[in-house]
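Example record used in the benchmark description.
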Amino acid sequence: MALFNYFPNYVWNLSVAIALESGAQIGEIMDMCQPLLERAEGGEDAGTADFMQSWIKEADKLAGLAKEDEEAGHLFSAADKQKRAALYYLVGERMQGHGHPGRAETYRKGVDAFMSSIENAKENCERVEFPYQGKTLSGYFTRAEGVTGPAPCVLYLNGLDSNKEMLYWSQLPHELARRGISCLCLDQPGTGESLRLNGFPADPISENWGTPAYEYLASRDDVDAERIGITGISLGGYYAPRVCANEPRFASGACWGANHNWAEVQHKRLKREGENPVPHYWNHVQWVFGADDMESFFKKADLMCLDGEMEKIRVPFLVTHGIGDRQISVDYAHTAYDQLINSPKRALKLFTEREGGVEHVGADNMSFGRHYIADWFADTLGGHAKP
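Model output (structure tokens):
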């Protein structure tokens, strides 16, 4: 496969690939990873504490260098280093088991560095919040470029173990903005800030939070409420279609990875069929879903199949998948597409060796996925495909 295979296990390599696709520097990657090779021999779970410490060390160095840039008034230079510091903090944090010492502090350092980078670079990225169950859900809003008045917008959802910062770094918001479409990267329940700071576990009935997200976007005077789309990456490939099926005000949808039957995937993972996305996997999913044990986790996970949901979608919908996905079978993409019987415009795009992006959600090369999905929304929401 095309994934950068530095370590002897898929899970660690996936984290490196996420970093590379999010803007890491290869020399810094090597500096962080070379001391970890021996620890990686112990498998995907052993040595994750060492992984985080190595990545924190590099991030701390970059944060220190950025501070020197700020003191000299070189804010763009500071922003570039702060971005990579944030990336390395958050990738290191992602690899840890729930409750691991230093995890919460590392997460906060990552988010703080992200915000400093955005502010110093004057990027088209605004932190937003809206009410949800007595607290708030948060995200990053990127405004459409070259548009006067209300613009179309896409709600962009996390997977199982990503966060809104990683959604932003996937560059899909940037590609949408170039095409005259705004984007909200959301930390929905069970992900990022919603899980770590507000205590919202994942909710398989994703319209419960998808509808409030739609209503927040529709309330903005810079968003055209009739042209709001939705997409999701990885496990967002379950959440986004379900929201689209049960919240008919969304005008178009897409999934970056067809996570059609995540319930079945979990039972296969019990048998070690397919690759896991993170170390300490069963500990991780119980934390994400607010489950006390495996039985209570599976009560929620067993709800997560889109049979009977895809048929409800009555707007244009795109299914994408990499043919070499080692986590989620490409067969689910065909099933999802086949069930879109009421969509007025359905499409299936499989990424092959010819272009790249064959691994899970394009971990080997995300450029093809983000461009294809951005073009889909330009075609279906009325954005522009040309500069």
